[in-house]
Design a protein that fits this description.
globular; 9 helices; binds flavin-adenine dinucleotide; alpha/beta; 26 strands; five-stranded parallel beta sheet; FAD/NAD(P)-binding domain; 3 domains; Enolase-like, domain 1
């Protein structure tokens, strides 16, 4: 029997970790909670960073929690501290400052860090930016004010956000990506063309099927990038959106199971007793699709945080949700719901493109497994999204082709 109050340690104070801490405190007024982050800030909204980048909102609006919020709830927020080791036998974590913190229950909510640009010249210059943290964003804003040209590189959501930020701030912007169109994991050539047309309206120069081969510097800052196809593109600054690597290295020398992410069941428990994972870093069992997967969305991390906080405090709730990623896309919107995976051989798809508002187009793509709607991608008008989310949730079967095609028109 435990003779002390329960000790919770949470690694990562993103939305998953901070929400879990809040839920733990609600469920257990006497426990101790240590919440670690290598960053200097309490929880802020990563989803708001693009709007901060564009100058639409100020830094204050990005912050979600302050230090007083943690104090009021007796949550020990340990900032600028990297957790470097986990010892699951002794149930203790170690920080980069050499401190040891014992736990009864541990949550790993470490998210992921951006992949850097690895080409000749990249290590020798300043002003090549990833875009994941508040500090990244502040540095980019500072450099944008003194730049005329920029390259946004990659086919990910982050590369688009960088491109949007550069274009809105009136830099001469080139969007360079290796793939034949943006968001190849979910879109198709038609959807890619819809996105290109929107970006072009904002004066962005788009190049597909090419890669940065070298960054050519002048006085320690980028001058231009050379591409594999022999292009030379002027760039006072370069924004990198080449995906993220999930922060699983911390558990490398432990028995905790890792595949893409930290493997957990539908209760977000790992294979090691007392150890949980949540948010982007969790490869969780998703009953809606009957398999494990990772999901890099705010809503998913928030729901994970609530659920894992409940379960760590003795509850037993299974995770069941339809994650939705919504974001502005230049002057329209994009929504990705559920499993929207173009390369997945288990899925069949239907798509429709039609004229939309402001001279843009609407594009809708539906993903089916066994004639059930499992994923939706919408660009342009969001009308019908909520109904489609409900249909995904209900796991209704749409036996005939006309039934499935009718979903393209749901408003
Ligand atoms: C620019 C940007 C725009 C986005 N836009 C959208 C959007 O429009 N819609 C959407 O749904 N999602 C969006 N996302 C994704 C969304 O923000 C993430 O899915 C969500 O923030 C993940 O939360 P998390 O708590 O799992 O991890 P994170 O927010 O990544 O938090 C993990 C924290 O743990 C820290 N950490 C890691 N390892 C350690 C360690 N060893 N010791 C101490 N601390 C550690 C990290 O530095 C980080 O602070 C966006 C992300 C970015 C970067």
């Amino acid at each position: 029997m435990t003779t002390h109050e329960k000790r919770y340690v949470i690694i990562g104070n993103g939305v998953a970790g901070t929400t879990a801490a809040e839920t733990l405190r609600k469920n257990d007024p006497n426990c101790s909670i240590h919440l670690f982050t290598n960053e200097p800030y309490p929880l802020y909204n990563r989803v708001s960073l693009p709007r901060f980048l564009q100058g639409v909102i100020v830094e204050q609006k990005v912050m979600i929690r302050d230090l007083a919020w943690h104090e009021q709830r007796n949550i020990q927020l340990v900032r600028e501290t990297m957790v470097t080791e986990i010892h699951t036998d002794e149930r203790v974590i170690v920080t980069d400052k050499g401190e040891h913190f014992p736990y009864d229950s541990l949550l790993i909510a470490t998210g992921g860090w951006a992949n850097p640009l690895r080409v000749p010249g990249a290590d020798d210059v300043k002003h090549i930016y990833n875009f994941v943290t508040l500090d990244d964003t502040k540095s980019i804003i500072e450099r944008m004010a003194e730049s005329r040209t920029a390259v946004a590189y990659g086919g990910s959501f982050i590369s688009y956000e960088l491109c949007d930020g550069f274009a809105v701030r009136k830099l001469d912007t080139t969007w360079l990506m290796r793939g034949p169109y943006w968001l190849r994991s979910a879109l198709d050539p038609d959807g890619g063309e819809v996105v290109d047309n929107i970006a072009k309206k904002f004066g962005v120069d788009i190049i597909h099927g090419d890669e940065i081969a070298e960054v050519v510097p002048k006085n320690g800052v980028p001058s231009y990038v050379k591409t594999r196809q022999g292009r030379e593109i002027q760039a006072d600054m370069i924004g990198i959106g080449l995906g993220i690597t999930l922060n699983t290295h911390l558990v490398a020398n432990t028995p905790i199971e890792v595949r893409n992410g930290i493997v957990v069941n539908e209760y977000l428990e790992s294979n090691v007793a007392g150890v949980y994972a949540a948010g982007d870093v969790a490869e969780f069992f998703d009953a809606a699709i009957d398999r494990h997967h990772t999901m890099g969305t705010w809503d998913n991390a928030l729901s994970h945080g609530r659920l894992v906080g409940t379960n760590m405090a003795g509850g037993r709730q299974a995770y069941l949700d339809v994650p939705t990623y919504t974001s502005p896309l230049f002057d329209v919107n994009i929504a990705v719901v559920g499993t929207a995976e173009s390369g997945n051989p288990e899925l069949t798809t239907l798509a429709r493109r039609e004229p939309g508002e402001k001279g843009n187009e609407n594009y809708r793509k539906l993903f089916f497994r066994d004639n059930k709607l499992v994923g939706v991608l919408m660009i342009g008008s969001p009308k019908g999204r909520k109904k489609l989310v409900e249909i995904v949730k209900n796991q209704q079967v749409h036996e005939t082709a006309p039934e499935r095609e009718a979903l393209l028109l749901v408003k």
